[in-house]
Amino acid sequence: MSILGFFTVLFLIVCAVILAEMYREQHSFCVTHYEVHSPKITCTAEKDSVNRIIFLSDMHNHVYGKQNNKLFEAIKAEQPDLILIGGDMLVAKNDVRYQEALDFVSRLPQLCPVYYASGNHEQRIKENQENYSLCYEEYRKKLQAEGVRFLENESCDILLGNQHIHISGLELPLIVNKKFRKADVTVEDVRRCLGEKHTTGNQEKQQETTENFADNSYYILLAHNPSYMEAYKEWGSDLILSGHLHGGCVRLPGIGGVITPQAFLFPKYSGEMTVEGEQTIIVSKGLGTHTFNVRLFNPAEVIAITLCR
């Protein structure tokens, strides 16, 4: 065989391996475990009362097994105390449908409390009724009837065991997700949506939570797009959960994600846990894709978080 023939065969083998891996990653998921430490947490990793949180994002109507049973059983096996959803569970397109997302998310309250913050796809469907009619309202009402709590520029206080937790769901204007541009989002934009950190949400910005919660709560912010992390950090949550970037589509060792949905290269936060001072940032690689259906060295994931001192 000539040198040219050898390298041609080698190239074809490499291409075949890459395509096979891309196919595998499009049709499977993993459970990624993170241990998050904070002096605010009342239990340790060794105690039975440890707090377990499942974080889901960017499913985009993807289905793993019949009725998403594989995904549901994987979550059930983690024995979660709380499930948080970071948005984009469905896809906003002309022939919008939500049945896959509805069927799956509606089962989750069987396991534990579920809180849902919108992504840009839910928001687009909600804000463009001329294109999508009342699809989002129907979707939300059906999930609320099953016990899912939506946080649309709102916050709530919960007691998880003996742990006070304050959860906020941020919904920035849709324009911040526009392709080929990055908006100038500041902490003031976050405050306009959510109020100050210790308030209960957009409709009650001046109403302080109880002093007990304000002093002792562990603060979690669900903010779909991680491109504006500096503003989120300044707002002041202990744990920031994002998604949106699908892990950067292709991940490179030592570098991370390659490209964002807004067509920016090598985002700082794309699919990992980062600890910065007393704040923890977790960005999900997501559970599905849309439009640009590529995953390479970038498996879809369920994130399982253990909160401990």
Automatic annotation (TrEMBL):
<dbReference type="Pfam" id="PF00149">
    <property type="entry name" value="Metallophos"/>
</dbReference>
<dbReference type="GO" id="GO:0016020">
    <property type="term" value="C:membrane"/>
</dbReference>
<dbReference type="InterPro" id="IPR051158">
    <property type="entry name" value="Metallophosphoesterase_sf"/>
</dbReference>
<keyword id="KW-0378">Hydrolase</keyword>
<dbReference type="GO" id="GO:0046872">
    <property type="term" value="F:metal ion binding"/>
</dbReference>
<protein>
    <submittedName>
        <fullName>Phosphodiesterase YaeI</fullName>
    </submittedName>
</protein>
<dbReference type="InterPro" id="IPR029052">
    <property type="entry name" value="Metallo-depent_PP-like"/>
</dbReference>
<dbReference type="GO" id="GO:0009245">
    <property type="term" value="P:lipid A biosynthetic process"/>
</dbReference>
<dbReference type="InterPro" id="IPR004843">
    <property type="entry name" value="Calcineurin-like_PHP"/>
</dbReference>
<keyword id="KW-0479">Metal-binding</keyword>
<dbReference type="GO" id="GO:0008758">
    <property type="term" value="F:UDP-2,3-diacylglucosamine hydrolase activity"/>
</dbReference>
<feature type="domain" description="Calcineurin-like phosphoesterase">
    <location>
        <begin position="52"/>
        <end position="247"/>
    </location>
</feature>
